[in-house]
Design goal:
Layout: H1 4-11, E1 39-40, E2 76-83, E3 87-94, E4 104-112, E5 125-131, E6 141-146, E7 154-162, E8 168-175, E9 187-198, E10 209-215, E11 222-223, H2 256-261, E12 298-302, E13 311-317, E14 336-345, E15 350-358, E16 364-370, E17 376-380, E18 398-401, E19 404-413, E20 417-426, E21 430-439
Parallel strand pairs: 12-14
Antiparallel strand pairs: 1-2, 2-3, 3-8, 4-5, 4-9, 5-6, 6-7, 7-8, 9-10, 9-11, 13-21, 14-20, 15-19, 15-21, 16-17, 16-20, 18-19
Length: 453
Amino acid sequence: MPRRVLLLLLSGALITSAVGLAPAGAQGAPPQIPEEVQIHDPFEDANYVNDQGARGTTGFQGNRVTPRDAASVSDLGKIWFSNDAENISLHIQTQVKGPATAALFYRLYANAGEGSAGSSTLGCLQITAFMPGAGYVGTPVARVRDLCNVGDPIDGQFEWTDGPEGTGILTITGPRSYSPLFADGGVLTGAFAESRHLTGGAAPVGSLITPQVDNTVAGTDYTISAGGGEPPGEEPPGEEPPGKKPGKKKGCKKGGEKAEKKGCKKKGKKGKGKGPKTPPAKGCAPFVPGERGAEAPLVEVTDAATEEVPVEQAVTLGMSLADVNPGPLPAPFQPTHDVFNIQVKTKNADAGLFALLQFSDRRDYDLDLLHPDGSYAARSRGFNTLAGTQFSTAGHGGEHGTNYEKLLGIRTDNCGGWTMDVSNHMGEGGNLTVKLWLAEPQTDPQAPGEETP
């Protein structure tokens, strides 16, 4: 699994550092980072080699974290929205407080949860910031634009403030009256952010935007509240009317979707065995794997499996030194493998399958999710052995670190199944565990037959 070419690319990357170019306006109190943010991107991955799937259109390839990334002010961290009765704000945490020596460009895309006057694969809402520096001479500009309903952008206000642990926070604010997307109860979905360098000229136009430094996956939804408090339709807890038992919610007895929205507790049966159990989806025929998984065990993953309480599947791998294999040498200079099958049983039409393999630091393991015909559905193939890197061979739907491989929300139909191939390329092997759970889908699998090992 050689990755030497990527190391050569990294060595020529530009180093960006923060200096004291003061933003317009006096600095206020730094915004508090909420527990739930729309996007959480890791630091140390602003190195030009990320491929987060271009907002999901080509599949998530994973963050490329490096021991020394190529930038700091352009390294994106936590990103979230906030609003009050009149304004909406976008907050972008950066690894170091800006502005920077280099000219930088930040952009966030998002769509409307209930559709819009016109569709846009890039996102109806675009919030941007142009920060001048070496390569771009001008004044800082922040803009808010609704491509689907308004068209023309408006200038917003921006501010750099100190974040926790030496980080910075760039806040861009615009009036809610500008766009119907910002109406009470409006939902902004699929937020996706990126940072780029600016070169040449003296005006913030698209032709000046050059290499992408960092980007993120699509984030979680944000619901706009009437005045910055609880989102519409959610009443804060209070005292029950006289004569009613405290805490009892009307409509809980019947259950169903309406009961869930009211905060009623779900009823379910407890199962036996390791990992959570729920009543399986009805009508599922047993999964029939292909040749690769014909003799392998089958693990069922249901809606009860969560990141906090996953299903665990044990695998056993032999020792391998395949990463130092200069040619067709015998064991231990060849990868070792263990295989099992997965069947998803969900009460929904589909679900996102997550898989996590954790191991000792600086070893090299991979996850390959296969169709019954043996072709790739998804892969997590990081080069875990090189300090701090997540360089990957060709893959789909994976995320990597120095001590883990992870598949992110592979869309799987109810009753659908896969074969999982766990491989060791540099490590002592032994007994390991793959954790499996279901959540919202993040990545569509590759088509059967598209790529075969």
